[in-house]
Design a protein that fits this description.
six-stranded mixed beta sheet, 36% helix, 26% strand, binds flavin-adenine dinucleotide
């Protein structure tokens, strides 16, 4: 290979690589930016969301619908809710949170998240979501993505 061909090949390879990186960055920038992405829309996630939306933060809640007490008929020891079906408590909390305009709910399992220079991107249900901060509670029996340590 002549020197000139070698340089041309190198430049073409570099340009292709740069274009890929640029495409990726542009794609990430085109996604809406949430202030907080909450992984898990049960009691803890909804309680956190309520405080955030009251402070006018843009919040995305991703929920896989596997609330751990979903098999229990009644809940006890929760002041004001004693004897209520746990699903009814969660549904009421969800309705209260979704009444605020800056919240978005998506039924999806968050499978992966990667850090970006300005926050992170979460992959869930075939889509990608961009956020400044993640929120999840440490869970023993549920499947939170490993990035949230
Ligand atoms: C049988 C049973 C009975 C109970 N009875 C009572 C009672 O009477 N009184 C009481 O105070 N407590 C009770 N508890 C405990 C109570 O259920 C828990 O304390 C409570 O559910 C914890 O709420 P949480 O929001 O932290 O998590 P969870 O309720 O477990 O919710 C976690 C949510 O996050 C979602 N999630 C997890 N991983 C992901 C992911 N990667 N992407 C998207 N979403 C995800 C799950 O699908 C789920 O919706 C009971 C528990 C059980 C199992």
């Amino acid at each position: 290979m002549k020197r000139r061909e070698f340089i041309a090949l190198g430049a073409a390879t570099l340009a292709t690589g740069c274009a890929g990186v640029a495409r990726r960055i542009n794609h990430e920038r085109s996604l809406a930016m949430y202030d907080v992405i909450i992984i898990g829309g049960s009691y803890a996630g909804l309680a956190a969301a309520l405080q955030l939306v009251r402070a006018r933060r843009r919040v995305l809640i991703l929920d896989a619908g596997q609330r751990r007490n979903r098999f229990a008929a009644h809940s006890h020891g929760f002041l004001g809710q004693d004897g209520q079906p746990p699903g009814a408590i969660a549904a009421k909390g969800k309705a209260e949170v979704l009444a605020y305009p800056t919240v978005t709910w998506k039924d999806a399992l968050a499978a992966e998240a990667v850090r970006t220079p300005d926050g992170f991107v979460v992959r869930a249900g075939g889509d990608e979501f961009r956020g400044k901060r993640p929120f999840s509670r440490p869970a023993s029996s549920t499947s939170f993505p490993p990035f949230l340590a």
